[in-house]
């Protein structure tokens, strides 16, 4: 579900940024709707932070246009772009109290002292730190400091909130909690938000839409479900969640040939028969248990290893017939208990036709 | 944990109390319209800063180069001056003498300083802070004080002259000993830094593999410190080649480059030949600069974020030996300077050892009396005040403001340049540039203002690097956050960057003050009749034979410099401790 309306709030077109011979961003086109929460997701060096900094005006693009609220701000300095920003390092002014930090952007405007104080109190309450105004940043925990940074960014009521890996410096537990809080806050304020992250779980949990980036280009834009269920490229499939890839050749009709095995696949029809593809499927999509040899895409495998990962087991399965590689399957702890699997055991598993994805063989960039 | 649960519940509450708050949020506050634009102000500031550095650093240095290619009567001479130089035996002799003295000083002082640095960093001997302070003492006096002290100890009337076996202290022996004393703290600082940057894990690994102490020293300690050793050797070599005060006081008839340059310019008015000598002095200095750059790049990679600092464990024999060694070296340093101070209170060395304050009545020795001291004080205070502002603001512009990249790159280069330029050469450049008839700035010549500008330029680099280092430690996103909050950079500078860097700013002030009080070489060409400085008065009084007064004036300078350092310590201890309370993790309540 997206909450986009007809006219985009932020529109980026043909945005390119080079550092010498290195192209950090290569012709980025993107639209973001009013009130949307969008995540830029990708490995380090993919250009996601560069894109955020260009939108903020902290760096200048070599080519392309940026429009915010239908106003061309391509060459406007940051101060004219009306955004709030939160960094991974918090970037709180260490010599100012929490209250003074939050008030930093308000003091500059002609506002009465009492109104500033009221606004600071309101914001600190909003982020759950109502009694901390007199403390210095160093006296707060990392999670608390990041809430203060958030309050400071929201103080001037910007129309756009930019979050640059805001949770990466925090412990796992604090990170999960703060991520829910930020999401709730964003929904309630309805503020258009862009968050840069390299953590796919964070992006899937928080975003209305995810922009997956790689090597300065956008690989796919879509809702978390879309990019997880229907990854547009092998890169997206591999980066979001886990995926096993096997080399395959497209056959006639719905058939696809993997090693010496023919499988039924819904996804290979876009390709010319005989062309090579990469066949991918997710570990949790492999059906283990109550599979009979006559089922569609049933394969006999031997359990090579079983890895206990808390709530589930990850099994490495060696096909009895040549598939050109091992399979990885996740099965819940319950199912594992029911099946009483053990290493070395033979059994049949099924690769459901709807779960198989065919990707073009990666072209060299 | 309790606290985080509490914040959690508050958070939920505030979320539940949503609608009212949410309604009040989108309210827009009008941003004050800012005239003129931030970008314009920043660009103008960077351009102005560039221009300043060009005038006080680049143009004077360029003048030295041009002057060396001029004939004494004006007109182009090409490389003729250099040919004349190298075909004149007396001139070449000075060059060889300089190399000899500098080489011997390096050979003596670097091993001595290494041993001292080792004792300070790698043992558990007692009174380390005190020994460090003693060793740094020469930094607070003009270089020629050690020369004056030696004339009392080893000179014709010296009480220890017997140990020279009849050789005269006036000449290479005296210069070398005095330069050793003067250069010791410079080498020590570099070596202490090098030995402190060591990974304790390497020693644990060596010891886990059963490596002996000598082998550990040869395979871990020395390799870790070798960049520091090379750097120290170059720095000492350069200091000695370019030092003017010591050879002037104790060089006797032994000519060296620095005294030669002075003789050519002041004595014979042969400006082009003075420029040639100046350029020769520039060679080791530039070499040292290049080597130091190279080394710093490598040295930093020796220590990773995962390194654990080495911590010495008690080892009685080593610690006692170190204590003995440190006491010996510190004793020589403090003793030498002590003798000079003591001698300044002696009525008539060595015949009448009764104490007197007569030598502090400078009017008896020099017609200017105490005036040079007040000149020095005024000059040093203005260098410190103006310099601190210029250096810190300049470093901020280069480091934090992202406009006019070409201008910032030029400024950075020029700010680093003075480190490679001996004071005497810079002084020559100022003579050539600010004394030129065509230059409208020649009204400054002979004024205290020009002395102050010259001194600031001379010591610019170290101050600049100190300021830059402090600014680099500040989160680079502060300016970005400010821009997003529509706060101009100068407000962030005033409210955040400057207060955070206050300890560094004070450090800069004292550094510039101490050096301005003690410098001789850069300003020896530049003073006018009414702007003679204390350090120059020392040279004059020593030349006139009133050595006790020279020692007295040097002692006054040293006392002033030490007082400034002490004041800084007090300010740090009492004032900053209160204003920097935000650095402490515990609540001040």
TrEMBL record, chain A:
Lineage of the species this protein comes from: Bacteria, Pseudomonadati, Pseudomonadota, Alphaproteobacteria, Hyphomicrobiales
A molecular-function term among this protein's GO annotations: ATP binding
Family: Belongs to the ABC transporter superfamily.
SUPFAM superfamilies: MOP-like, P-loop containing nucleoside triphosphate hydrolases
Keywords of this entry: ATP-binding, Cell inner membrane, Cell membrane, Membrane, Nucleotide-binding, Translocase, Transport
InterPro entries the record matches: AAA+_ATPase (IPR003593), ABC_SmlMolc_Importer (IPR050093), ABC_transporter-like_ATP-bd (IPR003439), ABC_transporter-like_CS (IPR017871), AminoethylPonate_ABC_PhnT2 (IPR017666), Mo/tungstate-bd_C_term_dom (IPR008995), P-loop_NTPase (IPR027417), Transp-assoc_OB_typ2 (IPR013611)
Protein name according to UniProt: 2-aminoethylphosphonate ABC transporter ATP-binding protein
SMART domains cross-referenced by the UniProt entry: AAA (SM00382)
Residue ranges occupied by any ABC transporter domain in the UniProt entry: 10-240
Cross-referenced Gene3D superfamilies: 2.40.50.100, P-loop containing nucleotide triphosphate hydrolases (3.40.50.300)
PANTHER family found in the cross-reference section: PUTRESCINE TRANSPORT ATP-BINDING PROTEIN POTG (PTHR42781:SF5), SPERMIDINE/PUTRESCINE IMPORT ATP-BINDING PROTEIN POTA (PTHR42781)
